[in-house]
Amino acid sequence: MPWSGCSGVLLVLSVCPLVVCLPTSLCPPGCCCLHSGRLVLCESLGLRSLPVSVPLSTSGLSVARNQLCNVDHLLRSFSGLQELSLSHNHLARFPRGLPPSLETLQLQENRITYITTGVLQHLGNLTRLDLEDNRIRAIQPAALWGLSRLQVLSLKGNQLTSLPAKLPPSLTYLDLSTNCISALDLLSMSSLVNLQIFKINSNCLRSVPESAFDGLPRLRSMDLADNLWVCECDILYLYRWLLSGRLKMATDLVCTEPFHLAHRLLLNLSVVAICPRILKPNEGTSLPSGLDKTPGELNVPRLHRSTSTGRLHE
Questions:
Q1: Which residues pair with 193 in a beta bridge?
Q2: How far apart are CA 114 and CA 60, in angstroms?
């Protein structure tokens, strides 16, 4: 069967040439098999179970956009499988019995609610794991710790309320956006020594604990927008960290509290406006240099995100 469109497949298949599939006898009905069956695409077929006759030599398999509810232990015999997409299905839990050879696993847009300790312990070769847009409320401590090669982890669009504990130090990209994480745990942050890109926008953060970002030596990009920032004394660490200009990132964070500062930009405020108690009673008329000035009055350059282009500019 000729194949003329292969959208939404694994990373290695992101460029879809116009090809002719293998004969039906060597490829599951309705699927597209490329490169002598090493890459098998069985997308949007209404499947309720895995297709039969997938070649055991397959290294990339996509069964995305089907109606799969359970694939436990059905792929263990594919000892050379490196990339697997089970996205846009009806899986209610993380699949059991996946082959240890996997390097990329896409599980976005399923119905997974928990990640339990041990369910990933045999997947030590994973470098990419996408769990975006599930219903994950909790990840048990150390559930991801054994993934010593994991570099890219997306948990965007779930229901997490805290930073997962004991994340693997190998991570370079972490997306936790669009959850309701209310605090950054210092112990969890301390393991992220190789992290380069950190997305925690659209959460429920109210402040950032002292030294939270000091142990991230390779960090080069971070998104903190659309949180519930309380512009009081506890936010001074974040305020000063943003002023340091270490990263090229948007700094237009908006206060939600206290009431009199709501809707104000954090970096349009002075230290004293944020934390009046920084003044001692006998120093009411004598401020240390700069404490009563905003970053703009001190000529501190800041980056903002353009509403039309999304690009950062001073």
A1: none
A2: 26
What is the distance between the alpha carbons of residues 227 and 214, in angstroms, rounded to a whole number?
A: 21
As a whole number of angstroms, the distance between CA 305 and CA 49 comes to: 45
- The torsion angles phi and psi of 273, rounded to 5 degrees, stand at -65, -35
Helix (H) or strand (E) holding 187, with range, is: helix 186-190
pLDDT at 232: 96
Angle at 169 between CA 219 and CA 174, to 5 degrees: 55
Report the C-alpha gap between 85 and 128 in whole angstroms. 11
Q: Which residue has the tokens 């054994």?
A: 146
pLDDT along the chain (314 residues), means of 10: 38 47 71 88 96 91 98 95 98 97 98 95 96 97 94 98 95 98 93 96 96 94 95 95 80 92 94 85 50 56 46 44
Tallying the residues shown for the chain, one arrives at 314
Which residue in 49, 22, 48 sits closest to 37, CA to CA? 22
3-state SS, residue 312:
strand
How far is CA 91 from each of CA 64, 86, 157, rounded to the nearest angstrom? 11, 9, 16
The pTM assigned to this predicted structure is 0.85
Identify each DSSP E strand in 19-122 by its residue range: 19-20, 32-34, 39-41, 60-62, 83-85, 104-106, 114-115
How much is the pLDDT for 35?
81
HSE-CB at 170 with a 13 A cutoff on CA atoms is 17
**Run of H or E residues at 2:** strand 2-3
In Å, how far from its chain's centre is CA 150? 12
How high is the pLDDT of residue 135? 98
The pLDDT, as a whole number, for residue 166 is 92
> DSSP states of 118-142 as a string?
TTTTT-TT--EEE-TTS---EE-TT
Contact 71, 95 (CB under 8 A): yes
